[in-house]
Amino acid sequence: EDKVVQSPLSLVVHEGDTVTLNCSYEVTNFRSLLWYKQEKKAPTFLFMLTSSGIEKKSGRLSSILDKKELFSILNITATQTGDSAIYLCAVGGNYGGSQGNLIFGKGTKLSVKP
Amino acid sequence: ETGVTQTPRHLVMGMTNKKSLKCEQHLGHNAMYWYKQSAKKPLELMFVYNFKEQTENNSVPSRFSPECPNSSHLFLHLHTLQPEDSALYLCASSHPGQGSYEQYFGPGTRLTVT
């Protein structure tokens, strides 16, 4: 059964800390891994990773994929209270005969305290 | 108006009511999705439409009935729901034909079944 597992499920840190969020997957027809940030309602796109070992970076956020070990990490440096959110990992592939379907993990709830 | 919009944002309905959720995307995408997000569970894919054709139905109970009149609009018709159907219902769109698995999400409809 295809699955995406995120850890930890919740995390509390203080402003300025660095955090690492983990995502492992077991899927067939893997094509890409995506990270989303969900603050209140709509998940917003952060990164899409398709190749191993190539880091994607956006400001204080970065992510990397290891297709051999089947996992990805999302790093956030110098955390701010505005980083508090649920971070979702999803794997995209060709599932059920339909390209573009995503399988989501449960998410990691990050709380950044002042 | 840009992006993915959903109406209503909040809905309270009794178990005998009939209501509909609406989603509209202004991104020129050809695939649209309905997801259910319950507390402490991963996002659950419910339905997928590609070019107005339903390509996936993830064993969703018949009390949920999707409709996709064109590539920009997606509805979810609800009738005789159960309290356990209370959740956040998210709509998303994408353009998988271009090799992109990035899905853009709407703000969601918070549904409460009483």
Q: What's this model, at a glance?
A:
With 114 residues, chain A is mainly beta. Chain A has strands at 3-7, 10-14, 19-26, 30-38, 44-49, 56-58, 61-66, 71-76, 85-95, 98-104, 108-113.
Q: In DSSP terms, counting alpha (H) and pi (I) runs of 4 or more, how many helices of chain B?
A: 0
Strand content of chain A: over 45%
Instruction: Count all strands of chain B and give the number.
Output: 11
Radius of gyration of chain A: 14 Å
Helix/strand class of chain B: mainly beta
Q: Name the chain pair with the biggest interface and residue counts per chain.
A: A-B, 28 and 26 residues
> Any idea what the shape of chain B is?
globular
Judged by helices, strands and strand pairing, the structural class of chain A is mainly beta
> What is the makeup of the main sheet of chain A?
6 strands, mixed
Low-confidence stretches of chain A: none
Order of helices and strands of chain A: EEEEEEEEEEE
Helical content of chain A stands at under 10%
| Uncertain stretches of 5 or more adjacent residues of chain B | none
Features:
heterodimer, A: 114 residues, mainly beta, six-stranded mixed β-sheet, five-stranded antiparallel β-sheet, B: 114 residues, seven-stranded mixed β-sheet, four-stranded antiparallel β-sheet, 0% helix, 56% strand, globular
Walk me through this protein's architecture.
The complex is a heterodimer of chains A (114) and B (114). Chain A has 114 residues and is mainly beta. Chain A has strands at residues 3-7, 10-14, 19-26, 30-38, 44-49, 56-58, 61-66, 71-76, 85-95, 98-104, 108-113. In chain A, strands 2, 4, 5, 9, 10 and 11 form a six-stranded mixed sheet that branches. The model of chain A has no long low-confidence stretch (mean pLDDT 91). Chain B is mostly beta strands and 114 residues long. Helices cover 0% and strands 56% of the residues of chain B. Chain B is globular, with a radius of gyration of 13 Å. In chain B, 36% of the residues are buried. The model of chain B has no long low-confidence stretch (mean pLDDT 89). Chains A and B meet through strand 4, strand 5, strand 9 and strand 10 of A and strand 5, strand 9 and strand 10 of B.
